[in-house]
Amino acid sequence: LNLFTLLKLRKLSRELGARVWHGHDYKSNLFGLLLRPFLGHHLVTTVHGWVRNTARTPLYYAIDKWCLKRYERVITVSTDLEAECHSIGCDPARVIHIPNAIDSEEFSRSAPRPEAEGRPLIIGALARLSREKGFDLLIEAVERLTEEGHDVRLKIAGEGELEEELRAQIKASRHAERFELTGFIEDVPTFLEGLDLYCLSSLREGLPNSVLEAMSFELPVLSTRCGGMESFLRDGEDGMLIETGSSDAILDGLRALVTDAPLRARLGSAARARILADCSFSRRMERVVAVYDSLGSA
């Protein structure tokens, strides 16, 4: 715990006349609680999920969950996180589900998606290269899809502790030239615009912005039924849901999309419409402001 940071935050909050402290992780949640006796602010937090496993994360998560029970409003980005907050003792009346949101103008196509006939279909994914993302299963599924004779490529953007392991898996493939680990990318919109479909192969997840961004780019999304995705994505309407932790399920889902251009087009159009209706920044901020306003009578 950094005392200098704590004192600096107290000074800044006083200068700004802040009435609401909105935390987003264990540290900001703890700081908000520690400073409240001095500042008297309302306490709001957003829960984004607990997915990374390191030697210290059990302690961090314990601190976070201890803090959450003492916050006046707890915003969750997915329904599974809402249920978990209830299970750890948060007052259900104080827990509000507000989905993640994105800039639907920034994440929009500059031109219609080009026809896939006569070229490989590009499957994409964007996330940290860590165990819970299930990228080994995705690579295996795409390799098998290629063995079946489908002309596809897989691009995975991101960096993380599994990079060398995934590169070794690709190198061992008979179709290594069809896979690309791009590393970290700054220009996410350009990456997404170059894809034909998006696959979330995660074992655990909340509601990742990467999926919302892909949907905003009119990409058909194939996702495992992990965490918040099962409650968010409407299977067969604005995306496809498959079993979690199975390369067979990923293969079946990819095959269905790769071989059915009208299905890809329909799901992509519906995905964009869903983002505009439910997950734009303006819509999310309306909901967050309503949470702040509710504190006046709390």
Write the layout of secondary structure elements.
Layout: H1 3-16, E1 20-23, H2 26-39, E2 42-47, H3 57-68, E3 73-76, H4 79-87, E4 95-97, E5 121-126, H5 135-147, E6 152-157, H6 163-171, E7 179-183, H7 188-193, E8 197-200, H8 209-216, E9 221-224, H9 229-232, E10 240-242, H10 247-258, H11 261-278, H12 281-294
Helix pairs in contact: 1-2, 2-3, 5-10
Can you tag this structure with a few keywords?
single chain, 298 residues, alpha/beta, 6-stranded parallel beta sheet, 4-stranded parallel beta sheet
Protein architecture, described:
Helix 1 (3-16) crosses helix 2, helix 2 packs across helix 3 (57-68) and helix 5 crosses helix 10. A six-stranded parallel beta sheet has the order 7-6-5-8-9-10, sandwiched between helices. It has a four-stranded parallel beta sheet with strand order 1-2-3-4, covered by helices on one side. It is elongated. The protein has helices spanning 3-16, 26-39, 57-68, 79-87, 135-147, 163-171, 188-193, 209-216, 229-232, 247-258, 261-278, 281-294; strands at residues 20-23, 42-47, 73-76, 95-97, 121-126, 152-157, 179-183, 197-200, 221-224, 240-242. With 298 residues, the protein is an alpha/beta fold. The model has no long low-confidence stretch (mean pLDDT 93). The chain has twelve helices and ten strands. The two termini are 30 Å apart. 45% of the residues lie in helices and 15% in strands. The relative contact order is 0.13.
Low-confidence stretches: none
What is the strand content?
15-25%
Please tell me how large the radius of gyration is. Answer: 21 Å
Mean pLDDT: 93
SSE order, as H and E?
Answer: HEHEHEHEEHEHEHEHEHEHHH
Helix content: 40-55%
The 3D shape can be described as: elongated
Q: Strand order, main sheet: write it out.
A: 7-6-5-8-9-10
The helix-and-strand class reads: alpha/beta
Number of helical segments? 12
Q: What can be said about the biggest beta sheet?
A: 6 strands, parallel
According to DSSP, the number of beta strands is: 10
Q: Termini, distance in Å?
A: 30 Å
